[in-house]
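User: Um, any thoughts?
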Amino acid sequence: MNFPMPAGTGEGEYLRAFREEIVPALTSFKPDLLLISAGFDAHRDDPLGGMLLDDGSFGKMTALVRDIAPVVSFLEGGYDLDALARSVAVHLTELLLPDRPPGQR
């Protein structure tokens, strides 16, 4: 599945794709393992991505898929080191502390 998004796309459109397309497809497929190519170049502070996600956006997307199957996450991209560090921290928190309600991590 591929979901091309134009420059300037924000959290709402990403979450819509996850909720309406990605999560249902994964749930139906029932994978034994979920490999996440965790790229953070869609962060609004990234000089190359041109997207409008923030640190929390990555946590929300992670929370939507983390319970579908065991997850292995690989760090891919992100070119603003401060935004990358914060986004990775939120992503890992969602993976490691899934029993806490969103917004309380």
